Amino acid sequence: MTRRYLEDLATGEMWVSREVTIGEQDIIEFGRGFDPQPFHIDADAAKASPFGGLIASGWHLASLAMRLCVEARFYGETPVIGIGVDEMRWHLPVRPGDKVHVERELVEILEVPDKPRRGMVKARVDLKNQNGERVMHMYALSSVPKRKPADG
To answer: Which of 15, 54, 90, 95 is most exposed by smallest CB count within 10 Å?
Structure first.
């Protein structure tokens, strides 16, 4: 696997991750550990919720999107540092048995004046279900090393 540096990247680059099926136990385990609301941890109680059944936590979906992005190794062996997320939104509930995947597009590549050895990449990250519907959206901001520092 090769390294990809800031100079190797171009806006408009896209990739699609593998698809993952969300299981009922996955939803419950994540919910119990990190978001213990009834509609994430108890299928019977979830029936009385506004969702009418068990759904995955939005934080579960964000964590899963991160995992799929890391596994895809878009930057190869290059160490990339996450520096933030903008505009995270959850659009549709994800239920047991749903299948999701990430579609990611580089939308902005920036020099960072006070960091001559690194630049910033902004990527649109959409988590979509088996029907192609967007269930989560965010912009991931990453610090990516340069092949040659700007100062020499």
So the answer is: 15
Amino acid at 134: R
Written as six digits, the tokens of 87 are: 């505009």
Angle at 12 between CA 9 and CA 16, to 5 degrees: 95
Quick check: helix, strand or coil at residue 80? coil
pLDDT digits (tens, 9 = 90+) for 25-73: 999 999 999 999 999 999 999 999 999 999 999 999 999 999 999 998 8
Residue 76 backbone class (left: φ over 0; alpha: ψ -120 to 50; beta: rest): left
Q: Largest alpha-carbon pair distance within the chain? A: 63
* Domains of the chain, earliest start first: 6-145 (3.10.129.10)
